[in-house]
Design a protein that fits this description.
By secondary structure, this protein is mostly beta strands. Helices cover about 0% and strands about 55% of the residues.
Length: about 160
């Protein structure tokens, strides 16, 4: 039996960290009427970069800017790739993912509200970026730092080391 439900269309995503499906209305997820969002894997800035394997080190929001500092997982397809250290299975380098010119930001948790993971060597991180999507009116980014909706802005990705 097929049941029809009235209301806005729903996007279904799978959250690997929580091992469950998540539902969000298309408009809440930043989707404009006839344009589907682009996943980060389709954005040229991330060629050879694996955000799902990159570690979030910190984040910050000021007026019109959201900045996420990463230990980025970089693969041979990237121009930023260098030979991995002996204890790494791929290249990891410090990077910054920035949204400049944001008009509105919702859902970003303060760093003090999120408990970091402490690795055996004593370093801390805040998990990975579970998703990053670009739509015609902004971005949605999800991770331990929250399910963040950003209206407006321009994405920049820079390798720092």
């Amino acid at each position: 039996m097929l049941a029809l439900r009235a209301g806005p269309p729903q996007l279904v995503t799978f959250c690997a960290a929580h091992k469950k499906r998540q539902f969000a209305s298309a408009h809440a997820a930043g989707v404009m009427c006839n344009r589907l969002p682009m996943d980060w894997t389709e954005l040229s800035e991330f060629k050879g970069i694996d955000l799902n394997d990159s570690f979030v080190l910190s984040w910050n929001q000021t007026n019109d800017k959201v900045e996420i500092n990463l230990e980025a997982s970089i693969w041979p397809q990237s121009a930023y790739y260098i030979k991995p250290k002996s204890n790494e299975y791929t290249c990891y380098r410090r990077a910054t993912l920035t949204i400049l010119g944001a008009v509105e930001v919702t859902g970003l948790l303060p760093m003090g509200a999120v408990k970091p993971t402490i690795d055996p060597d004593g370093t801390e991180d805040y998990g990975n970026i579970d998703s990053l999507r670009q739509s015609s009116n902004g971005y949605s980014i999800a991770g331990e730092f929250g399910i963040v909706q950003i209206s407006g802005g321009k994405l920049e990705f820079k390798i720092n080391t």
